[in-house]
Every structure is written in structure tokens, then in C-alpha cells.
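Subject: complex prediction, re-run

Hi both,

The earlier run crashed halfway through, so I resubmitted it with identical inputs.
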Amino acid sequence: MARREGRGGRRRLALYMSSITLGVAAVVAINSFRKNVTAAISGQAREVLGADLELSSRRAFDSIIQGVLDSTARSGVPVSRVTSFASMALATRSGGTRLVEVRAIEGGYPYYGAIETEPAEAWADLASGRNALVDPAVLIQLNAAVGDTLAVGDARFVIRGAVLKYPGDIAIRTAIGPRVYIPDAYLGDTQLLRTGSLARYFAYLKIEPPAEVQRFLNRHNQTFRQHNVGYDTVAERESELTNSLDILARFLGLVGLVALLLGGVGVASAVNVFAREKLEIAAILRCLGATQGTVFSIYLLQAGAMGLLGAAAGVVIGVLAQWQLPRLLADLLPIAVPVGVDYSSIVVGLGIGVWVAVVFALLPLLSIRDVSPLAAIRRDFDPAAPVPWSQRITAYVAIAGSILALSLWQAPRMTGIPFAGGVAATTLLLWISASLLTRGLRRFFPRRARYEVRQGVANLFRPHNQTTAVTLAVGFGIFLIATLYVVQRNLLDQLELDAQPDRPNLVLFDIQRDQIDGARAVLRERGIQRLQETPIVTARIAAINGQTVQQLLTAPDGYRRARWALRREYRNTYRDTLVATEELVAGAWWDTQSAAAAAEAAGRPAGTSAAPAAISVEQDLAQELAISIGDRITWDVQGIQIETQIASLRRVTWARFEPNFFVVFAPGVLNAAPHSFVVLTRVSDRTVRAEVQRDLVLRYPNIAAVDLTLLQETLDSVLGSVSLSIRFMALFSIVSGLLVLIGAIATTRFQRMRESVLLKTLGASQRQIIGITLTEYSALGALAGLTGVLLAGVAGWALMRFFFEVPFRLPSIPLGALAVGAALITMVVGLANSWSVFGRTPLAVLREMGE
Amino acid sequence: MMIVAQGLEQTFSSAGRPLTVLRDIDLGVEPQGFVAIVGPSGSGKTTLLGLLAGLDRPSAGSVTLDGRNLNHLTEDQRARFRAENVGFVFQAFQLIPTLTALENVLVPIELRGAMRDGGAARAEQRAIRLLERVGLADRIHHYPAQLSGGEQQRVAIARAFAGDPKILFADEPTGNLDADTGRAVIDLLVELNREARATLVLVTHDPELARRARRVIRLSGGRIVSDTPTSPVS
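This time it finished cleanly. Structure:
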């Protein structure tokens, strides 16, 4: 019966079908992609690690670890070493310099997966002499060529080729820190690895069979822990990778989910019209003896069947679209992701499509359920009986529950609930603004306006108006685009160095004490001002309140403190003032002068004290370490123990390219400790900036210069790459929104055409009819666009304030343009909808409608 | 003459073939005349009415209303002419469903721009008077869906006279109504028409209704087969 009854009105239902299609397509595409990524990772995990086990340390392996590695190697297990650190590289011919990541290689690493080089055999020849292989980016940025000499520290290497593919690397990584590979044998020649330099030491082991890896770890775990050696197995690397890519895929999935929910709005508005048209038939069926349940199930079945058709079309599009995803995300993927058809995603997509179609059709179909049989015999009887509250609430709960369930299923971990909340809040606010508009217009009706304007405005609140459906569809689409834009714009604003003349654009790291005067001289020669000069002292935590780190880690309440925070190497500074990126949140900043006076009075030289030195700790770190004001921290400053006490807590804005610190010491106690300097400068001229870097590198090879403008360009491209993939997924939502808009407007096409023809018959000119249409749709579009943009402003502000923690600026002009664009699109769709009426005789249109 | 049709012919293409539904129509209607056009279904009655009212363009021939040749007017000029000179009553009422009864009656006045320059209050007064005249004083803020068929047709009649038309076209005005209601609606139509001194052209296949006109034009197969004056009943 449902099938037979469905013969009529199929074309209109096709629209309803299509609104669900793109949402299903997005869900299918992203979930197939997720499955493919997971499968690819588990197939290539060993290639990603390049070995069966990776050991790593921030200090050179000490004699005990060396002993373990040597004895392992003697037992026949292949062992390779890689030392990795940042350094300036200088191409002597071109004079180009750049901060690079140097990797000194020893042994047969990688054991799995191939390194692709140009020329092909370059990797095998690396160890044969003073050779270097570089990322292609190095060649470009240093303006160097194969065969050129590359200076790294005090050593010179000949560039033998470029590394095209390195196992486990993501393409975007080389943009951030392009790599230079050198043989380990010549690492010492660089003279770069002094005490206090930041380097990572890796050992790679090929242990077979895989079960042996665990046995090896069991045997040496204790030693590794004691000597701060971390390890990574294939399984661990696999799950890390799977997790991080899963999060990426799920975030993209959320953007796709919005398309599905928009499709739901489309379903609801289409079924609403559908139900109204079917009321009379439903009444006849009721007259003939059909029960409420029968009538309801006839139409619910039809909705489900149409949902299935729409979902099937979506599956096809989704399967095709997923071919595009690995290409868009290529720069972020460490492995090649093969594209395959994942059947479980298809089944899930179909199921979700039908489910969303049915759930969103519930509410409008309830009015059919309660239709009075009387409506069949009394033409003047208003057949739309009000739906009882209990049923209405059931339908709302079903919709809300479905949104929450879908969000939790698709969202990464705990973001599901905020996401569902965000969707609900946005929908609610859009709905409220739509109903405020209709009420407001009714109350403040522009009675003195021209007839076209009055008629157009009145169409917004008259019975069967489309205000809510269009506001939701257009508003949601605009909200999505605008939020993405606001976030991206604000993140990029943080990096806009040229717009802020007081911000540094060149940062010099690792200037040693004996080099600082020379470095100052180099800058002075070129007339460059130092904006900031910050001393840095590396240190580790030795004890907190008298308990050693080892004791703290093993203490019963050890879980309260974050391991990373206890074990890490801190780069601390000392100064007597707060800087612009800091704000005191608790305690008091030290008063240097009174402290000096007190010391003098006590007969001690200023800056020395029997009392522990005052320090200020960043508030989040304090929380991680479960410490607060008054607690004591003993620091191990390169072998010397220094006693400190927390005097204050600070909030730090990390997002700026300026040296910020977890821990700041009061001046005095660290003055004598071995330290290096970070110098911030601003050099506007690009050429001068390059020359200064070259001069410094030639004189002090260990100094690392970071050209922030270069970093900015890099981040620009990283963000660009990420936002491209987000935009690709958002495209589904936007097109969905457009379809829902077209659908919502088209559902009233018949009625609109009749009205327009009637007005023409009664003497309305074409201009008047166009005027009415323009007024109605431009007002609708402007409302939806404006609301969407405003909500995006609020969402962007919240994301910036609470998630990214950077200052917020509203890009009002682009957002305004977006709102205008929304109004224009709505207007165009609205006009297109009534196009057939314009310029035709009333009877011709009526004849066409009759056919 | 208020209405002059000369050599009217209308041809549609149906299933790829030309189909002539009206041919050789010549007729004239005096000012304040009351003409009924009758004939069996498919005889071309409604097509003729559409051409006379300028709702469609003839394949051949011309229509002149109140001295204006419709062939010489653009689509918009004809709309303007209708707004100022013509009223309509349809078989299916054709009220705008999203407008209240009062708003529907106001439409022709609005289209003429008569609501501007302080005309709004006067126009609304007139519309309310018309609705009272057709017996719907207590229904002026109802939407069409909330009115019975007879009530809807009475709103349509009020609307037809709202623009103070010179010519009134009525297409089967009682076709969707029961006999009693239909009779009441016709009484109202004729009475209002007399008061307004308008020319009334009525399409119907109801012989009793046709007898009330002063002249009956009979169509068959797209041609005028007879054109006879009657002695009106009322």
C-alpha cells in the first residue's frame, strides 16, 4: 500500500532524497578513508619506524646504555644510530643559510622501507665520505645544487643528492624543518654537540622475530628508565599513528556530519510539504477504514524508502569522493594510503541515511497520523489537526538523541558532546532569530512602504512561509564557512609580522656566553637593534620539596604529577620584569632593589642568599606538577644543585614567536651558571636578513637563526593544507545547505506560481512581481547570512579564547561580504524559482501548471 | 462598444499538431452590457474569456477593450490595464491562500498604487465596506482555508469590484458551489454589477444562469453558433 500510494509526488520527493545524499556521501567518504588509513598503517607500521625498536634519549647514551647496545650488536642484532639536532646550514657557493635538522646516520638504518633519493644509489654511498643528502627544500632555499659544498658547524660536506622519501616522514614536516643527512663518522667535526645543545639520540634495532622485542624490553626496561631512555615499538608507533590520524579523520567527519544534519533539515521541510499535500488522501484512507497506525506507517515507509534511495546515491558519491581525500591530505600522511571500497562504511552510510530520513520525517508526518476522516467529506474543514504535545516531544527527543549519538560516534573522544551542543545551540539560535524576525516583522510591519515591499515582507510571516527552513539551511552553511574563515584568519594574524613593526622577525638561538659580544657586534655593524636579549639556562628538576624525581615518580600519589614535566629538560631564564606575553595570576613578583638592599644589609653580595632563590612558574605547569606558591624545587643546573622557592604563578600567551618560559628565576642565582642567549631582532630588509644570518653562521656555526617570516610562510602553507581538507569536507555541507535552500524554496514553487499568475491576472506588472520576490528572498538571505556570520563570530571568539588561547579579532569586512553573498544567492535561487512566470501570459503559465 | 473582438483565432500545438480551439470570432459588447457565453465543455468558452480579458495573446485577430487594442500593449501594459479596468471572478475562487480575506480584496487596489499618498485608510474602508456588502463583516481577518466555498467566492466577488472595474469577467462562478449557494452568489454578482455600472461577461454552462444575462452567445467547436438577446428574469 505504501508503494502504491507513493506513485504520486515522486518528483518532489526526489528533492527530499537529494538533501540526504551529500550528508551520506560525506560520512561514507570519511569513514572509508579512516578504514583505509588504519589498514595502511597496520600494513606499513614497520616501514614507518624503519626498525623493530627505537630507543631515544635527549642526552648522549651513557656508558651503561652503550654497553647494552654493544652487547646486543655483538649478539647479532643489527643496531643503527641516528643523532638529530638543529643547526644552521650554509651553502658556501651561494651564501644561502637556513636552520635545518641535521641527522647523523650510522649503520644500516632503515631496516624496513626504502629511502628514495635522487640519484637513486645516493643513500648507500652516504657513509663513503664527507657526503650530505638533503631534502629538496634545502636545495631550493639555500639556492644550492648537487655537488655544492655545505657547511654544517665547522665541518664541510659535499651535497650528493636529495632525499625524496624517508620512511615515516610527512611531507609537511620538511617544510618546517628540512633535513640534512650526514655520516655519523663526521658528526664530531661539526663541533656542534656541546654540553647543553639540544640534540636527540636514537638507536634503531632490528630484532627478529617480533616476539623477541618484548623479551628484550623486559630485560632492559629498568635500565632504560633509570637512564632516561625512551623506546618505541612497531606496535606503539602503529597505535600512535592510528590515533592521531583517526583524530584527524574524525574531525573531518564532524564537518561532514554537519552536511548530514543539514540534510535532516531538508528532509523535515520537504516532508512537511509532502505531508500537507497528502492530508486529503490520508483523510480518504481514514474514511475507508485505515487506522491511524496504518496511515502513519504508509508515509513513514515512504520516507524510509526515499531515504534509502537518497542514501544509496550518497554512497556512490562518497565512494568516489574518498579518492580525493588521500590526495588532499598527502602532505599530512606519513604513509601511502591506498583507496579501497570499504563495505562496512557503505552499510553504515545507508543505515544512517535511512535513520536520519525517518527521524526528521517523524514530526511532519505526525500531522498525517492525526488527520480527521471528516476532512475527506468537508472541503472547508481545516484538515491539519494540531499534533499532541506528547508525540511532538517524542519526535524532538528522537531528533536530539540521534544528533547526540551521531556526534559521539563520529567525534574524536570528548568533542562529541560539545559538538552536539554546538549544533543544537546554532540550530536553536537560528530558529530563534527566524521566529524573532517573523514576529518582529508582523509587529513592525512597514505599512508605508511600497506595495511590492509590503507584499514581499508579509510573505515572510504568512502561513506556509519558508522563513525557518531557509534560515536554518543558509544560516548553517554560512556559519560553517564563516567559522572556518574566522579561525584561520585569526591564527594567521598571529603570524602577521609585517603588520606589527614592533614584533621581531629574526630570532638567534644558542648564542654562547663567549659569543654574545661578537654577535652583538655583527648586528651593530649592520645597524640592527636588538629587541630583546634573553639568557637561557638549561636545567632539570632534581627534587620537589626535598623528594627526588625518582621518589616522586614512584610515590603512591605519583600519578598526580605529570611524568613529562618531571623528566623534561627546562630552558629557564632570569629577569627582573614581566614581559608583554605574561600576566601574574598569583603571588608577587620579586622586588629586585629591595632584595639587593636586604642582601647588602646582611653583608652578602647582591644576588646571593642563604634563602632559596625565588622563581615564577607558569600556571599550567604548576598544575601538572601539583605545586603552588611556597613549594620548593631543587634544580640540577648541569651538575650543580640550586634550591628555589615558588614566589608567583604566571599565565603565558604561548602563541607568539617570542621566547616564553615555564620557569623564570629572580636575577642573581643563575648569573654564574653556564648559559646561552636568545636574541630577538627585527630586520625589515630581506637581503640584509639573509646577510646577517650568513655572517653569524660563518663566525659562530653553532648559533641558530630562525627567520620568522620563513616560518610564517611555512605555517601558512601547513594551515593552508589542513584547511583545504576541511574545506573539502565543508563543501559537502555547503552544497547540502544549497540543496536544502533550493528544496525549501521549490516546495512552495507551485503555490508561488499560482500566486504570481493570479497577481498578473489582477493586473500586477512584471516589475511588481519581481519586486515582491526580490524583497522576500533578499530579506530571508540577509537574515540567514547575518545570523550565521554573527554566530560564527561568537564561535570563533570562543575557539580563540578557550582553545587556541590567542587574542581575537573579528574580520568584519570579509564576514559582511559573506552575509551579502548569502543574501544574493538566496535571491538568485528565489528568482530562479519564479522565473517561468516572468514575461509570460497568465494563461500560458496556468496551462503549463495544469499539465 | 466596451468590448470588440475581430477575427479572433486561437491555435495551440497539441501533441505536435496544431489544434485550433477558436476561429472567426467577431463580437461586440455595449457598455454596461451583460453577456453570457455558453456552450459544451471544450467549446472554447474559457479560451475566449482569456483572450477577451487579455490574459493570453490570440493567434490571429484583435481585442479592443474600452477603445484600447490589446494587441498593441505589452504584457505589463495589459496587466496595468487590467488593474485599472478589469475585475475577475473564477470558478475555483483563486484567492491567495496566504492572504486574509481583507488582504485579498485589497490586492487590486494595491496593484493600482491607490494605497499610497494617504489612500491606505480609504482603500481599507472601501474593502471592508465591500466585505460587509457580501455579508462577510465578521470574516475579514480569516484566511481562505478557514472559509467555506460560498464564503470564498463572496470574497472573490468583493475583490472583483474592489478596483472599481469597467468590465467584469466571471468564469463559471457557481461551478464549485451547490445550487442554493450558487444562486445567492449570482444574485450578489448581478446586484453589485448593476450598482457599479460595469460590463459583465459571464462564462457558464448553466442554462438557468445564462437566462439572467441580457444576451447569450453560444459557442460550439470554437465558433459562435448563435448570439441572441434574452428577456432578463431580473
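Chain A touches chain B at residues 379-380, 382, 447, 450-451, 454-455, 458-459, 462-465, 751, 754-755, 758-768, 839-844, 847 (CB under 8 Å).

- K.
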